[in-house]
Amino acid sequence: MTPAAPLTSVLTIEAAHTLSAEARRLIAELTGELAALYPEEADGIFPFGEEDVAAGRGVFLVAASGGAAVGCGGLRRVEEGVGEIKRMFVRPSARGRGVARAVLAALEDAGRRLGLRRVILETGKRQGPALALYRRAGYSEIPLYGEFVGNPLSVCLAKDLLR
Q1: Is the separation of the CB atoms in 79 and 107 below 8 Å?
Q2: Which pLDDT score is estimated for 162?
Q3: Structural domain contains residue 100
Q4: Cα three-residue angle 91-96-100, rounded to 5 degrees
Q5: What is the domain count for the chain?
Q6: Is 18 within a domain?
Q7: In sequence order, which residues have a C-beta less than 8 Å from that of residue 157 and are 6 or more positions away?
């Protein structure tokens, strides 16, 4: 099978409201996918909304190709100098084409502009491609934090942002 052509040459990544129709669709697709992967954690999706990405606090990005949204990701400040990546998602039809890498890089750039020194995130043990993406991008495993402490299905990662 031939690998899919990269989308990064025709990819746009722009800030969006989490309440926009496209953002809500992407987040709903992500939520559905996570519910299928982790049925035992049906209520385990923690809130993330406009207050998290208000000016100076964070950002929510939507990636589009050919005018169609293909992915998203958010970043919110959790403490001085530290941000948390949330709601990373790429539609299945666009996976393996550089979209997640591009969204992740854009979130890290946004974090630098927000004055963050470090970004953290949580993903699940059943999300092998996501774990591989983050590790390739320089993320290292850290102890579980916050609401993820004690969750045997969670993996928490961090990366220091260079200026």
Answers
A1: no
A2: 77
A3: yes
A4: 65
A5: 1
A6: yes
A7: 120, 121, 122, 123, 134, 135, 139, 140, 141, 142
Residues of the chain where predicted confidence (pLDDT) is lower than 70: 1-9, 42-47, 163
List all residues 6 or more positions away from 138 whose beta carbon is below 8 Å from its beta carbon.
159
Residue type, 60: F
**What is the pTM assigned to this prediction?**
0.90
Please state, in angstroms and rounded to a whole number, the distance separating the CA atoms of residues 93 and 18: 22
Q: CB of 73 within 8 A of CB of 89? A: yes
Residue count (the chain):
163
How far apart are alpha carbons 33 and 162 in whole angstroms?
33
Contact 115, 3 (CB under 8 A): no
Q: Considering the domain boundaries, does residue 140 fall inside one?
A: no
- Residue 52 located in a structural domain: yes
What is the structure's pLDDT at 4? 59
CATH number at residue 49: 3.40.630.30
Query: Which residues span the domain enclosing 60?
Result: 8-116
